[in-house]
User: Fold this.
Amino acid sequence: MAKYLIVGPSWVGDMVMAQSLFITLRQHDKEAIIDVIGPNWSLPILARMPEVRNAITLPTGHGEWGIRTRRKLGHSLRSEKYDQSIVIPRSWKSALVPFFANIPHRVGFKGEQRYILLNERRRLDKGILNQTVKRFTSLGLPNEQAYPPANIPSPALRVDPTNLKRLYEQHNLSNKPAIALMAGAEFGPSKQWPIAYFHQLAKSAVNSGYQVWVLGGPKDQADGDKIVAELGEFAINLCGKTQLVDAIDLLSAAEKAVSNDSGLMHIAASVGTEVHGIYGSTSELFTPPLTENKTIHNLHLECSPCFKRTCPLGHTNCQNQLLPEMLIDALNLSSSESSL
Assistant:
């Protein structure tokens, strides 16, 4: 039985995809103990992963060095006597806690001169490990087996039926079949399908007999209001009204989910919902929703994927030219011109 300390990633979608690594470790050692260091927001997400024993918060902000804090946390973990640490991020600071915890085997990819901090530094072959989930999973395999990892398990977050029932009651949700819309794009506007297009899609969904839930954080509230404007009681803006962990349960109850390339898209994939993923500046070849139940919408323009936060050409055609009619047809919805 091996005991692991995993230093997790800092983005929602990446943390969901990291579950593929945790499942892989358990497949090779059913008795493996897995603890994960992550941002505070990730703790409820990690609690929905059966493979994870403990989720540990590092009390520093994103981008903050916090060397004293990392040393203190590392020292406090020495008594756990972990056998191995897997450091998913490639930054220097991310490898500090396992080093200070005196974990004998510390593995991660080469990056930022981590020669002392890691004692197994692997070369990242981006041609072979051409997806985020492959990179994460490969770190849990012996080095000679790591390229490329085969039969990667998909994330499968646990659903809480009691919490789902509470959410239905709290927000007066209907028993109609639901389509969830996730219009946020934390990375930047180049990943965001136009809000007017989401509104047109929502109108078609309501006309087709669905209820529409717009999910997102407090920053997405204004956009959510625009999406549901004048669409009646079955179009509900839940942005900022629910916690991130609630999205797991709500998405499990939705029949379909339409999303930009975002963390919520990966949550929807992890609970088996039919996912319609919108790509433009990023690529489904690198960060696909890890489910067979998906449809990818990507125009594959010459200028994409650029992986830029804002369109370097100033037109964002990869999003603007992906017309709402294309998704309305793909979701088998009626025309949005019908009366509500």
